[in-house]
C-alpha cells in the first residue's frame, strides 16, 4: 500500500472537501485522461502543487504558470479566454 497524501480535489471547477488519497491512486490519475490539479490543503489559499498536462491543455496555460496559484484562481484559469 502506498503512502497517504492529503490534498483537495476539484470537480467541474468546484472545490470538494479535503480528501486523502494513496500515492497509488494519484499515480493512476497521472496516467489517465483526466484533467486535474492537486492543492496543499494545509496552507492558506490551497496553493496548487501539481497540475497534469490535461489540465494545462484545458486552460491554455503552462504547468509553470498554474503551479502555486491558489485554488480560488481556478475559475479565472478556466473562464479567462
SSE map:
Layout: E1 4-11, E2 14-22, H1 23-31, E3 37-39, E4 48-51, H2 53-59, H3 63-66, H4 74-79
Antiparallel strand pairs: 1-2, 3-4
Please, could you describe this protein's structure?
The chain is α+β, with helices and mostly antiparallel strands and 81 residues long. The protein has a single domain, classed as PAS domain (Beta-Lactamase). It is built from 4 helices and 4 strands. The strands form 2 sheets. Strands 1-2 form a two-stranded antiparallel ribbon. Strands 3-4 form a two-stranded antiparallel sheet. A hairpin with an 8-residue loop joins strand 3 and strand 4. The N and C termini lie far apart (41 Å).
Which terms summarize this structure?
alpha+beta; Beta-Lactamase; two-stranded antiparallel sheet; PAS-like_dom_sf; voltage-gated potassium channel activity; KCNH_animal-type; PAS
Summarize the structure.
By secondary structure, the chain is α+β, with helices and mostly antiparallel strands. The protein contains four helices and four strands; from the N terminus they run E-E-H-E-E-H-H-H.
Amino acid at each position: 500500500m502506498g503512502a497517504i497524501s492529503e490534498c483537495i480535489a476539484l470537480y467541474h471547477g468546484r472545490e470538494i472537501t479535503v480528501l486523502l488519497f494513496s500515492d497509488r491512486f494519484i499515480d493512476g490519475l497521472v496516467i489517465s485522461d483526466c484533467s486535474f490539479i492537486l492543492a496543499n490543503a494545509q496552507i492558506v489559499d490551497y496553493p496548487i502543487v501539481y497540475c497534469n498536462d490535461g489540465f494545462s491543455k484545458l486552460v491554455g496555460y503552462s504547468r509553470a504558470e498554474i503551479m502555486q496559484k491558489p485554488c480560488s484562481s481556478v475559475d479565472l484559469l478556466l473562464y479567462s479566454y
